[in-house]
Amino acid sequence: MPFLSNEKILVANRGEICIRICRAARELSIPTIALYSYEDRYSDHYRVANEAYQIAAAGEVGPREAYLDTERILAIAKKNGATMIHPGYGFLSEDSSFARAVEEAGITFIAPSVTALETFGDKISARKIAIECGVPTIPGLDQPISSAFQIEEFVSRHGFPVIIKASHGGGGRGQRILSGHPSENITAILQEARSEAKDSFGIDSVFVEKFLPSPKHIEVQILADKQGNVIHLLERDCTVQRRHQKIIEIAPAVSVPAALRQKIQSAAVRLAKHVKYENAATVEFLVQDDDFYFIEVNPRIQVEHTVTEQILDIDLVQAQIRIARGMSLVEIASEYVNATPVARGVAIQCRVTRFVPSCGIIAHCQIPSGPGIRVDGYNMFPGAEITPHYDPLWLKCIVHANDLDAAIAKMLAALRTSHVDGIETNIDLLQHILQDPRFRTQGFFTRSLDNDVLLAKAKGNTQDEAHQKLLSFFADTLINGTQIQGQVGNPESLHELELPTVQDNSHPGWRKVLLADGPAAFASEIRKHPHILVSDTTWRDAQQSILATRVRTVDLAKIAPYTDVAYRHAYSLECWGGATFDVALRFLHEDPWERLRTLRKLVPNVPFQMLLRSVSGLAYSAVPHNFLEFFTAQAVKNGMDIIRVFDGLNDLSNLSVAIAACLKAGAVVEAAILYTGDMLDPGCKYSLSYYLNLIDGLVLTGAHILAIKSMSGVMKPEAAKVLVSAVRSRYPDIPIHVHTHDAAGTGVATMLACVEAGADLMGRASEPEVRLDGVRAIDSYWAQLRLLYAGFDAKLSGPDPDVYLHEIPGGQLTNLMFQARELGLGSQWKETKAAFVAANLLLGDIIKATPTSKAVGDLAQFMVNSHLTYDDVLARADSLNFPDSVIDYFQGLMGQPFDGFPEPLRTKVLTRAGRAGMAGQASAQLSPIDINQEWQRLRAKHGDSITETDVCSYVMFPEVFTQYRDYLSRFGDIGLIPTQHVLAPLNFGQEITVPLTDGPSVRVELIALQPRPEGEDPPTERTVFFRANGEYRQATVHDLSLKNQSKRRQAEPGAQNQMGSPFSGVVSAVFKDINTHVSQDEVILSISAMKMIVNVSAPCDGFLRCLEIKVGDTIEKDDLLFELSKQ
């Protein structure tokens, strides 16, 4: 029967089976239509079809729901002239309602009849039919069960073990094995099975049957036409399974004796004829010793149909199409109608899946090929995105050889040449199985891999380990509170964030200019541009000033694509700097480099901008020149475009070195001067001539853009107008970028003055080309986000004119508030601001920007905590243990003040700390870092996953990076956990879905918490109980409140031989051992709190006693740290 000229097949599926069906249709000269979900828009499965259509727009339906949407699929079929629909396997392939809807639409369904789907969709119904045909079945009940009594009655006749099975569906869902152990609660287990069946298949019907301890899984391939002909095409051995999922299939089933195979084949044909079956089916059996038992019929094409095709040289998908159009088996496979098929050798199929499975972008893949090797798969190319939304099957490797041994050898060779980077697969596990002697002798049974630790461990614990770490995180958050330090109170809203609708923007984006023409041309175009351009600082400065820099990458990523559209005209998005980098590692437990890479992919059109602390990089003191060059190169390589270089002391020598490194890296370089004080005040040492001299020096460096940065917002409008006018007059061709904080409420006026004076770029301003509706849309997202992060919100109520007095930088203000609270100084905020003024004067009335602003802030906190005045510090400087940042400043590691360091304070501080002052440029005096040596050392400690960017993080923040890696080893990567479940604990009975970085999403439900132990010395560990993907799991963590119940001994007031903790914090280092002799002022240990580190010295000579603390201990103010004795 020839096909009509208007025939067209719609494939209602995705992935490799879609490609397989399209290939079969193409060979029959039939056009095809493919479908794809929004999440599959980059998949290659639909590109092989003649036509392809997206099922639904983004967000209208879920990624899986799209392929289950009967209404939309049929609408596409009818609109585009499909005359046939092939459902493949999975999704709607066994949905009788879908089949009925297809038939009612007048479209041919390439599958069995609606009646057959309804009959075999119910395992109990299929079992009854098998009994009618005289096909052996496993002893079991022929009706659904709802009570433990029915199971107990069945067991009284057949004994244990038995298995509860879902009446519908497969894949092991809804299955539970009862062994008869006294601890088994049959009622509870039955309810679990019914609930899982309901969740998986929409119906809670289950039945019970005898459980076979060590069967083989054998299935027979059936073809049946509309004329009543039924044939079998031999059988397949699908015994090698893992957790009810087939992994390796063999045809024919050489492990089963020929006589028994013939009985199985005849039984399958008999059953199909009995129900007048049409099209392709698989009749499945379990074989135990010399007996076989019917288990189910799969009324569709199977994943493993390929091995049958290889040994019989037949195209089963084409046969399906021909049968659906009325052709008989005599026309399709005449050689098998009246004769038993004879296998031509042996075929093996290995299912290569994303292991556990993982997700990601395929960086490289090598697919096996050669005589006797077939590969069916999809997205097998570099750049393909493998998502967690669908079945983990990636490709099927099929080999064909003369016998089993030859087929095994060919498959092993094929797998050894297979390689993929970007996702983890089960290729190692497949090789492990094939090399096992039991595979060659066919000694496996269906549950071998579940019971065999040796086989199961081949990368098999990756998912379990990831799940356990996740559960430990949730348990720790439940018991000990938030993992994000600095949070006060729970979020004010836990609702899902609504994403905005943003009208598309025709502007190509300034980044296109940069990439096409380079930094110099980019800067020139900026200067020529007739409008004022905006630099949006929400992702760095704004969230730093308002939310203590605690916004997580996952929340930035959600709004990123919309920001790319709404701010397409913007000069830049400021998204990276020292605080964002440090906080990501230290408090958010995230990789800041991964943040950069993630956001870069989502925002391809708007330039990214970062801040560089001159020769400190992003650290708090100078780094070697070679490392600075390495770091800036990595920043540009990973997506950074513009680097604003500033120095905490406006040290031109530091700025010159950093600018040179940035230019070498290929970045657009903004050279910044930092504004402080009141330039128009005759008594201010930071005069107009001071700033213009700096500008002259910066122009000589070759920087592309000049920047004026008022960190505290103290630049008044008149001063701004004078300064910008003077710079514009001297350098008419260089763009000027002005950035300020609106702390005092004069920011808008200052910006307008800058515009009038000739500035080109504004931070904290807008310009005519930015669409206000887009800005408002983005703002609506941040308004919601602020409620989510309410526990970090500084609640700044309005302008604070006091900023003209204390000059605390806007980005430091909230961090200083949080630091004060963590140190126990929250009630002394007024005193802290006053101390900040005094500390600034003590250090020489300096420019205040990180790292120098940190030194001022640390000194201020130190003074408040120690009840020190300005005069006290000067008088007692030679006996005080100053914070490390203050010592670094006086040593010269942060640069040189233009008017020198204050003396004799500098000398006293350095003498007390045992350090010598540095003259000249500090970074030039540091030895180069051997980058490769550091890389190898980190890989030896943390594993091969260490990257070049990890080296950068470690060099700048060694302790913080080490703590971050330790955190990963305890809790895993928490970056994808929704923020609602990071900032607030789970509720009992609450079930959530959590995406994992390496692997599929996991469903977690909080079940129970071990009660708080009682007694005088209770154990400090508590256990939390969960369900993860349906399995009961538990996690045990330390209850810190129990650990802290045994209060530390307090230092006795006035005791000269005791040392109490100067403030609340964490012991970061212990330098001396107990019972050793120490001298007065010798450093014993150090304490850190919110980035501030202070050394604690011996108050007198003596032997170290009662050293009861260790690194990592949390201590409170005045806790006894150590005690000294004369002997």
Characterization of the model:
By secondary structure, the protein is α/β, with parallel strands linked by helices. Strands 13-12-9-10-11-14-19-17 form an 8-stranded antiparallel sheet, with helices on both faces. An 8-stranded parallel β-barrel has the order 21-22-23-24-25-26-27-28, surrounded by 8 helices. It has a 5-stranded parallel sheet with strand order 3-2-1-4-5, with helices on both faces. Helix 25 (625-637) packs across helix 26 (652-665) and helix 38 (931-942) crosses helix 39 (948-956).
Secondary structure: elements and pairs:
Elements: E1 9-11, H1 15-27, E2 32-36, E3 51-54, H2 70-79, E4 84-86, H3 96-104, E5 108-109, H4 114-120, H5 123-132, H6 148-158, E6 162-166, E7 176-178, H7 186-201, E8 206-210, E9 216-224, E10 230-242, E11 245-251, H8 258-274, E12 279-288, E13 291-298, H9 305-312, H10 316-324, H11 329-332, H12 334-337, E14 346-353, E15 360-361, E16 364-366, E17 373-377, E18 385-386, E19 393-401, H13 404-416, E20 419-421, H14 427-435, H15 437-440, H16 448-451, H17 453-456, H18 461-480, H19 510-517, H20 519-528, E21 533-536, H21 538-547, H22 553-566, E22 572-576, H23 578-586, H24 592-602, E23 608-612, H25 625-637, E24 642-645, H26 652-665, E25 668-674, H27 688-700, E26 705-710, H28 717-730, E27 736-740, H29 747-757, E28 761-763, H30 772-788, H31 803-806, H32 810-822, H33 829-842, H34 852-866, H35 870-876, H36 884-891, H37 905-913, H38 931-942, H39 948-956, H40 958-971, H41 980-983, E29 991-994, E30 1002-1009, E31 1021-1028, E32 1031-1038, H42 1040-1043, E33 1058-1060, E34 1065-1070, E35 1077-1078, E36 1083-1089, E37 1092-1097, E38 1102-1105, ...
Helix pairs in contact: 3-4, 13-14, 19-20, 21-32, 22-24, 22-30, 25-26, 25-39, 27-28, 28-29, 32-34, 33-34, 34-36, 38-39, 39-40
